[in-house]
Write a structure and sequence with these properties.
135 residues; 7 strands; 7-stranded antiparallel sheet; globular; alpha+beta
């Protein structure tokens, strides 16, 4: 059985490899949220087009709630809260439940292409966790 640290190490390896997104602290995430702007309809349409993504109804137009993996709680459930910033960066609060614990991480994605890559990478990772016999 994989443990929490091996899951986080897997994510860390990919973070070190790419230039599209980087982990940030929770404080950095909160501090930058004040610079948020609304998503465009084209951006929402492109996010919705990613297989496995469900955009939850929005209550705030500059925050997009995404759910993928198994719905609800338990192993494999995952969600994101995405905030678009004025400087064309995107903040992501990712909640992942690969086992009985909950991992919450914060990321900054460079441009819209970085956000799309992060979402697709995360879906691939979650699908792998859900299909793994080791869990």
């Amino acid at each position: 059985m994989k443990n929490k640290q091996s899951v986080l190490n897997y994510i860390k390896i990919f973070e070190d490899y790419n230039q599209y997104f980087n982990e940030v602290s929770g404080d950095d995430y909160i501090d930058r949220c004040d610079d948020s702007i609304d998503f465009t309809l084209d951006e929402l349409k492109e996010i919705r087009a990613i297989k496995g993504v469900v955009i939850l109804p929005q209550t705030i137009s500059e925050v997009v709630e995404i759910q993928f993996g198994k719905a609800g709680v338990g192993k494999g459930a995952s969600s994101m809260q995405v905030v678009k910033l004025k400087d064309e960066w995107y903040l992501v609060r990712w909640t992942c439940r690969p086992e009985k614990y909950i991992a919450v991480k914060f990321y900054m994605c460079d441009q819209f292409v970085g956000l799309l890559k992060f979402i697709k990478y995360t879906i691939d990772y979650i699908v792998g966790v859900n299909e793994s016999d080791e869990y």
